[in-house]
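pinning this so it doesn't scroll away 📌
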Amino acid sequence: MADAQEKRHGIEDLLRVMARLRDPETGCPWDIAQSFTSIAPYTIEEAYEVADAIARGDIEHLKDELGDLLLQVVYHARMAEELGRFDFADVVDAITRKMIRRHPHVFEDPSLRAGFEKSRVWERIKAEEKGSRETGEAGSVLDDVPVALPALTRAVKLQAKAARVGFDWPSLDPVLAKAEEELDELKAARADADGGAASMAKVVEEFGDLLFVMANIARHLKIDPEAALRDANLKFVRRFGKIEAALRGEGRSPKDSTLEEMDQLWDEAKAEEAEKE
């Protein structure tokens, strides 16, 4: 919390700061030169920074990262205002109306709360908002899954959309069987690869199919595959760090050791973690 004696800035202050930064005559040259396209990667990056702070349980850092993400919203809104399309107030109004519209069990009829999650009312409301895409009257049920999502996340969302109209495995077992099938196909493609572009393209295709099925397994298990992979990455970094530390204690580095030595240290790090669980 900020010191009580300090002036606390509000959203209006942030909007004024962004307007000043974007002022074509007195603003920051870098900020003036930006566009929706150039800022979009930063928006995605900041969302990941928020997720990272949450994963690490760093609430103090989360405050800063949420501020960085909010700045991205303010940035895009300011650029849209300069084009005469909409401003930050329109963004706030739109999301507020959407939340009220999508929660009739809270804002209209509290008696709907108990069965709301299973009622599919949410999907119906979203379909109405998007021009009834999910009813097949226009476009595809998959149209509103953003292409820019991380690939694993998008795979799960695509599969979930298809599942809502009946295109889904009935249980996990056939999905696991499909994963084994895809792994066999990847092995076959790898065995047939001759180094040429066409054969390597087939290997890439089969690898993609395997990842897509793994995303489907995650969906059936109600696991977030991105979160699971992030945890696996953190575990790898942690255990490899212990390998480096052990070797450093001997005056060596990984490049000065053998794979067998590092495997042994990995097993020791793994066993140490298991004892603490």
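📌 and the second one:
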Amino acid sequence: MKISVIIPAYNEEKYLRQTLEAILVQDYPDFEIIVIDNASTDRTSEIARSFQSRGVNVFLETNKGTMWACERGRKEATGEIIVRMDADCLPGKDWLSKGAAFFNNLKVAVVSGPYDYYDAAPFFRSAALNVQKYVYVPLNQIFQKMKVKAGITVGGNTFMRASALDAIGGFNTSITFYGDDTDLPKRMSKLGKIVFSKDVVIKTSARRFKKEGILRLQAKYIFYFFNVLLSKRAIPDR
């Protein structure tokens, strides 16, 4: 199955080049890369376009918000599997292969896995990775058995069956950032299985935790997780 990798990017000049270098050398045989410049004011667009000769597709989305960028990317994508990857991620060479393998099961709609915060302090890096590997996996299974069916995904490490994503109307553009990784599996769980695999790991920056603080940012994620999970419709972040 062909994979379309969507990379939403707003002012990502510091990280984008190394991210594109990493995704370009994947061992998966059939994939395209789509960078959505979300009206950046730095050199993001220039850097992205410098990779066009290597097959990277670049589009502009002037509506601000990660989901607006992702939805534009989805509309431009031609793959049977849609992959969302953040502009500060560093995938291993077999990342796409590991995620795509789950879609041989036709019941699978979404696959996700842990973040490895490569530039975090050693204790936080190890603790965060182990929580995702050994707590998120069983929690994901429990949530799918609840009356309010849902699942756990990590936003910038998410594989989606394109036909299922199209059937739910694509990404929820009423959400600009927080809550998207709860809204998506909640809606997609109606069409198939949500898989959270400890083996589908991707490196990413811990910059948001460094900027806002670990406890404050984690509290935000938990707040929006339960608000979206228990709401009849997703709550846009403020």
